[in-house]
Amino acid sequence: MKTIVRQIFVMSSGTLTVEGSTLVPGTSFGQPKTIPVQYFLLETSKGYILVDTGNDPDVITDAVAAWGADLAGASNPVMNAEHHPYAQLGLCGVDAKDVRMVIYTHLHHDHAGAARFFPDALHVVQKAEHRWAFTPDRYFGAPYNQSDFRHDTLNWQLAEGDWVIQPGIHLVSTPGHTPGHQSIVLWDTPDCGTVILAGDAINCRENIEKDIPGGLTSDTAAAVSSLHRLSALASVSDASMLVSHEAGFFELLPKAPHALKLLDPEVRRYYEAGIRHIYHDAADPDHLL
Ligand SMILES: [Zn+2]
Hints:
Bound molecules: zinc ion
Distance between the termini: 31 Å
CATH architecture: 4-Layer Sandwich
Order of helices and strands: EEEHHHEEHHEEEEEHHEHHH
CATH superfamily: Ribonuclease Z/Hydroxyacylglutathione hydrolase-like
Largest sheet: 6 strands, mixed
Structural class: alpha/beta
Number of strands: 11
């Protein structure tokens, strides 16, 4: 398959520390878990594309001023000058004006925080996410910072369901964490094979291994379907699945300025545990047929 993707870079926006069961319900209740905030830079034959943008860089100087006391207190961000998106892009010799597109998995505060730093880009999000983020129901409004995305300078492109952005870059609808959550599939990249950027459809490997989606959901049944969809997609395409918020997994990834490389088979294929949840033992020759 042809792809416009040449290289993938993993960028860091610092860390959050959250209550453990928000990542995997029923586990680590009351225990603080420090998790990475990451996003991705795609070098393509048509210019640079970001997938998510991390936290609002104003967090570097004053998290409470940027996020309010409740959100800052619940997520305890640690973000330094080196985590500013301009500094992260600078590691790769890329300027903000070189970024032609920003694709959002969703518009939560740790994914859409630096949107306004890319006024020249086209900002791509699911229509369902855009609607929900701008007018969220009260019970689920806290993770959205209106100051992240309510800017007249932002040029939005609203996707509806599964979309092909360009050859090799595919948006896959994975609702449940939020109504318009999406994941990004990068087919047959030159150095990494097929890569799935799961976003918060999967916080960590334990979600797959235990068949339990993350604790923050707008629709838990949809979140389970999305978890299964990504596991099945990863299996049939022998993909590397990059989850959003697992410190141990993040440690294993090369970071900017080093490009992502093909991961070890064991690291890549942990989603086989999820396949067993969906299909039981698909490797059994007598299974189903
Ligand atoms: Zn989220």
